[in-house]
TrEMBL record, chain A:
Domain ATP-dependent DNA ligase family profile residue range list: 303-434
Annotated SUPFAM superfamilies: ATP-dependent DNA ligase DNA-binding domain, DNA ligase/mRNA capping enzyme, catalytic domain, Nucleic acid-binding proteins
EC number: 6.5.1.1
Protein's recorded name: DNA ligase (ATP)
InterPro entries recorded: ATP-dep_DNA_ligase, ATP_dep_DNA_lig_pp_1105_fam, DNA_ligase_ATP-dep_C, DNA_ligase_ATP-dep_cent, DNA_ligase_ATP-dep_CS, DNA_ligase_ATP-dep_N, DNA_ligase_N_sf, NA-bd_OB-fold
Catalysed conversion reaction: ATP + (deoxyribonucleotide)n-3'-hydroxyl + 5'-phospho-(deoxyribonucleotide)m = (deoxyribonucleotide)n+m + AMP + diphosphate
Biological process, per Gene Ontology: cell division; DNA recombination; DNA repair; DNA replication
Keyword annotations: ATP-binding, Cell cycle, Cell division, DNA damage, DNA recombination, DNA repair, DNA replication, Ligase, Magnesium, Metal-binding, Nucleotide-binding
Gene Ontology molecular-function annotations: ATP binding; DNA binding; DNA ligase (ATP) activity; metal ion binding
Enzyme class name: ligase
Organism: Pedobacter antarcticus 4BY
Automatic annotation (TrEMBL), chain B:
Alphabetical list of PANTHER family matching this protein: BLL1145 PROTEIN, CLEAVAGE AND POLYADENYLATION SPECIFICITY FACTOR FAMILY MEMBER
Segments crossing the lipid bilayer: none
Name of protein: mRNA 3'-end processing factor
Lineage: superkingdom: Bacteria
A GO MF label: RNA endonuclease activity
InterPro entries given in the database record: MBL, RibonucZ/Hydroxyglut_hydro, Xnuc_lig_assoc
Length: 530, 340
């Protein structure tokens, strides 16, 4: 446990990716071999069954620390994390042990089925032999929610580096079915439980944003224009009778989209497609907010499959008849892609992403205005002679996005964050009008210059109406234009709507609070996206 | 007439006709310590501990009308017996003891009970009523012994040296900076920002024993800084100069670093829970030792701490003050210091 606690400490003691990577590589080079698969399982969200309920854990911690319930609640509110609150609030441990992580996890699993008294004895005894940092980890092990800002991508990169193995192989391996109590670290790295020879993906080709005028790109007929869809960019790999769907985050998402499983039977072996996973209903692409409801779920209900059916819009072909065709020009790849699509027996689910026909840049600019109505983010421009590059390369592919949505809001809260002691108020909450009321619509952090932040800061200090811990309620006076990418229905928000990627576009010093947008405006905007 | 009243200008002693740590200009400001939220510019006269005087002069101007007292010496102000007692918070910090017709009140300003080796150790003072801060008045705040924290900082510095990184510690110029200097100077040279250097000069002149440090000037090479430890106040933490340092590792020294969210939010590389305020147990211990019948709770977790005191049988009430932001030296104070 001590080595693992040290790893967590190192990961939290730097906000630089390279340091974190080095900490992980160091850990996997030196840690107890038996612990390693458990750590990989923890960091990739493989959850064991919860052996003790949150309510009990909380009750025992409150008892042990001899404080009233309300004070525990107050502390929890201030810390924002239950495992951490408990770790901080318990009396100091009376003994010290260094039981390996795998043993703690196994012992916790064995609590399932025992009586509450037996569980209590075990947990209290554990708390009494762990320091604050270790207790925090132990509490996280009970809850199973071990998220500490390590993406599976970063973990995979570290494992790849440590074992000198290709990272896509490792990703495939850890996304597969395995049990940390049955597999060794070496087996996991080698992927003995999966066939990693079939799954490996290509790096995605990415586009730069078009800042200049489209006219500067030369002749329109040298370019292929497509809609820029707002879904999950995906790569579909079919080899040796197996199908794999990779997301751009280089995670395997095959199981999340059963609608696409028919491709396993219908795509020829040795085919790799690039495209976008989208929610498509009656032939129309739905906004991202709809697709979002399908994401990151362990199981997908029949209802969801009916309500939010998913499709795949194909952009490109990377492998054809088991041959890498990325160096062939786009025009040739597109022709082969059309051929492959024709041969699919199941129609209307995996389809070609349409090519936009246009004569001039002016015409295309006009078509681009319709992007919103298509639930698209704008237009992609790809040179017909271009190869499929690895990553981002300037010149061949451009994304010509439409501008984000904007609304005018008024600032109602300002906060210095949970640490309470940063120099300035930099987190703001914004509201729109709902009749006579102001209703919270977004929180945003960035977007102001240092000078503006200082100005807002001094406004907050002079105009704070109430203090709630670190939060200041301020006079609703400052108007800000908030930019965002979309709207979704949200039960958690009082407004019933939530903004996607809200950020401060600018401070509207020219406007007064009476001029801000209303909830009705936003509802109309939402309806127009459906 | 009560011995103290809480007014819109600050804590007032009506019999003595003076204020303690007022936030609006008054005739006489009895001052607990030199942090910006406890002492403001513009009072007609100041009374503070001998060692707070150089701090006030640095911060508020050399022509400031300051009278001083050593710890423990009692004087009479309009019939009220006034004496200063160590608060252990920062150099020169004092609890103000007031006595009139047998009634004793202690206004503690900010305090910590652990001896930091540089500020005179906290001394409990028996009283009838006690005014206490509550900055860390929640049971999640339990400090580790300072030697352990310094060991942690020292290891961190060594790791940074190994990795060719510059160690930049972010600490308040009055209090934390001197503690770090005292405890880390044996390890390697310490480079301090001008605001800290100016303060140290004043303190050394007044007789405080501080190890030698080097003032950061534009001429000092970035590579030289890497060999040592750099200490800067929080106002500079996100500044241009910090960004110009290549491969700097930043470590914030503050009680708020006890909580992960506090560390994350400040986006430093490391956080060290080193504080000049009492932790939960420290607050309770100090309050018990005063034997006070009545406690007035100021800045911090005022509501929960007051509620808890009442539940354990100590009569307490919440008091609204303007204290509690001392540690947020604004960029302006820092520039003023530079010019001073
Ligand atoms: Zn202070
Ligand atoms: Zn204070």
């Amino acid at each position: 446990m001590k080595r693992f606690a040290q790893l967590i400490h190192e990961l939290e003691n730097s906000n630089k990716t390279n340091d974190k990577l080095a900490a992980l590589v160091g850990y996997f080079s030196t840690a107890n071999d038996k612990d390693k698969p458990y750590v990989i399982a923890l960091f990739t969200g493989k959850k064991p069954r919860r052996p003790v309920s949150t309510a009990l854990i909380r009750e025992w911690a409150t008892q042990l620390s001899q404080i009233p319930d309300w004070l525990f609640a107050e502390s929890y509110h201030s810390v924002g994390d239950l495992s951490e609150t408990i770790a901080l609030i318990l009396p100091p441990a009376s003994k010290q042990t260094d039981k390996p992580l795998n043993q703690w996890i196994t012992e916790l699993a064995q609590l399932n089925g025992q009586t509450d008294e037996e569980k209590k004895t075990f947990i209290l005894d554990a708390w009494d032999q762990l320091n604050t940092k270790e207790r925090f980890i132990f509490n996280k092990l009970i809850s199973g929610n071990f998220r500490i800002g390590i993406s599976s991508k970063m973990l995979v990169n570290a494992l790849a580096k440590q074992s000198d193995t290709d990272s896509s192989k490792i990703m495939h391996s850890i996304m597969g079915k395995w049990d940390p109590s049955e597999i060794t670290y070496t087996e996991l790295i080698e992927g003995v439980h999966v066939n990693t020879d079939s799954s490996w993906p290509y790096p995605f080709c990415l586009a730069y944003a078009l800042e200049a005028e489209a006219d500067n790109l030369g002749q329109p007929q040298e370019w292929q224009a497509e809609w820029k869809w707002d879904g999950i960019r995906g790569q579909i790999v079919k080899r040796n009778g197996e199908l794999f769907i990779w997301s751009r985050g280089e995670e395997l998402v095959t199981a999340q989209f059963p609608e696409l499983s028919f491709l396993m039977d219908e795509l020829p072996d040795g085919t790799v497609l690039d495209g976008e996973i989208l929610s498509v209903k009656d032939g129309k692409v739905q906004p991202f907010s709809i697709l979002q409801q399908r994401l990151n779920r362990k199981t997908i209900s029949k209802n969801q499959l009916n309500e939010i059916p998913v499709g795949f819009f194909m952009y490109d072909l990377l492998e054809y008849k088991a041959k890498d065709v990325r160096e062939q020009p786009l025009s040739e790849r597109r022709a082969l892609l059309e051929e492959i699509t024709m041969q699919l027996k199941t129609k209307d689910i995996a389809v070609l992403s349409p090519v936009i026909t246009y004569e001039s840049w002016t015409e295309l600019a006009e078509i681009r205005q319709e992007s919103r109505a298509m639930n698209s983010e704008g237009i992609m421009l790809k040179k017909l002679t271009s190869a499929y590059h690895s990553g981002r390369k300037k010149g061949d592919w451009w994304k010509w996005k439409i501008n984000p949505y904007t609304i005018d809001t008024v600032m109602i809260y300002a906060q210095k964050g949970s640490g309470r002691r940063a120099n300035h108020f930099t987190d703001y909450t914004f509201a729109i009008r709902d009749g006579e009321q102001l209703i919270t619509i977004a929180k945003a952090y960035s977007g102001l210059t240092d000078k503006e932040i200082k100005e807002v800061d001094s406004f907050v200090r002079k105009n704070a109406i109430e203090k709630f811990g670190p939060v200041r309620t301020v006079k609703p006076e400052l108007v800000f234009e908030i930019a965002f990418e979309g709207i979704a229905i949200s039960k958690r928000h009082k407004a019933g709507l939530a903004l996607r990627f809200p950020r401060i576009a600018r401070w509207r010093k020219d406007k007064i609070a009476a001029e801000i947008n209303t909830l009705e405006d936003l509802r109309q905007l939402y309806t127009s996206t459906l | 007439m009560a011995i103290i009243e809480f007014t819109s200008k600050g804590i007032y002693c009506p019999q003595g006709r003076f204020y303690i740590d007022p936030w609006q200009p008054v005739d006489l400001a009895v001052t607990t310590h030199g942090h910006a939220d406890h002492v403001k510019w513009g009072n007609k006269a100041y009374l503070c501990h001998d060692l707070t005087k150089p701090i006030l002069k640095q911060r508020l101007g050399l022509d400031l009308p300051v009278e001083t007292l050593p710890y423990g010496k009692q004087i009479l102000i309009n019939g009220v017996k006034v004496s200063l007692h160590p608060a252990g918070h920062v150099i020169g910090s004092a609890q103000i003891r007031l006595e009139y017709k047998g009634e004793i009140c202690v206004v503690s300003g900010d305090y910590k009970v652990e001896y930091d080796g540089i500020s005179t150790a906290f001394e409990p003072v028996r009283c009838h009523s006690f005014v206490s801060e509550s900055t860390f008045g929640l049971p999640i705040y339990k400090w580790q012994p300072q030697q352990e924290i310094f060991k942690e900082i020292s290891n961190w510095v060594s790791d940074n040296h190994d990795q060719q990184k510059t160690s930049v510690l972010i600490a308040y110029s009055l209090g934390k900076a001197q503690r770090l200097i005292k405890n880390l100077s044996a390890q390697c040279p310490i480079y301090v920002h001008s605001s800290i250097a100016n303060l140290n000069e004043g303190l050394i002149k007044a007789g405080v024993d501080l190890p030698e440090t080097i003032r950061i000037t534009p001429e000092i090479k970035k590579e030289t800084l890497q060999q040592g430890i750099v200490i800067v106040p929080p106002a500079l933490a996100d500044g241009k100069w910090m960004k110009s340092l290549q491969s700097a590792a930043t470590g914030i020294c503050s009680g708020w670093m006890q909580v992960r969210a506090g560390r994350r939010w400040r986006s430093a590389d490391a956080g060290f829970a080193l504080s000049d305020h009492a932790d939960w147990q420290g607050l309770l211990q100090a309050i018990h030792e005063t034997g006070a019948e009545k406690v007035y709770v100021t800045h911090g977790f005022v509501s929960p701490f007051t509620k808890y005191l009442n539940e354990i049988g100590i009569t307490a009430s919440e008091v609204q003050t303007r204290y509690g932001e001392e540690e947020e030296e604004t960029a302006e104070t820092v520039t003023n210091l530079k010019e001073a």
